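In keeping with the milestone schedule agreed at the kick-off meeting, the structural modelling team has produced records for the first pair of proteins. Each record is given below as a sequence line and a structure-token line. The laboratory manager (R.T.) confirmed that both were archived under the project's standard naming scheme.
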Amino acid sequence: MNESMGVISPAGLSLPLTHPLSKPLNTLQGKTIGEVYNNHFKGELMFRVYREQFHAQFEGMKIVPFEELPIVYVGGDPMTQRKTAQRIAAMAKEMGCDALISGNGG
């Protein structure tokens, strides 16, 4: 039997980039970082640890804690996910965030 079969990864197909990504920040010193929690893997504990580590390394860094932004649950259709991400990004921008930590494992 001489048969050929195609295989698709369970992770899905790679998609082309449809818009440019944001440039990385040169430093977190003096920046405001927002936390967006996806309700996975003990974020209440982990975000506290992240804050301690960031403050120890980056002078003047401010954190907008995840409690001040909506919790994002994984799932839903791509359009709903996009709208949710845009809403949270707009809220974070209004709060003065320079960047976001998105999610916490899962």
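The second protein of the pair:
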Amino acid sequence: MIFKNRLLKPLLLTLLVAGMFSCSNEEEIKIPENILSKEQYTRVLTDLALAESAANLNIKNVRIEKTDSTYAFDPLKENNISKARYDSSALYYAEHPELYKEVYDEVLKRLSEMQSKRKGVLTDSLKK
């Protein structure tokens, strides 16, 4: 009987711990109020990607020294978000990789949709 109890306790403890972790993964993580929501963070990251892309492409063909003033689009200002709140949100999402992946997947989806629409417009304009 002692042998059975020695095996039963670790087994029960393992099952209990596994049960606790499996339940916690299913629960939705509550994002604190001072952190950008997934939608807000997605919008800002999408805008940041677009702003960086425009600056890197240099679509206005300006000298490198003037790119900062030429591409003055500020996604944080446009979305009415402080740098401190953005930084706190970036840290929060970095600490919650499952949420960050959801946001990042949505950013990629939106950018892909924009690219598809742009290609469609370009194709249509070339046909004319």
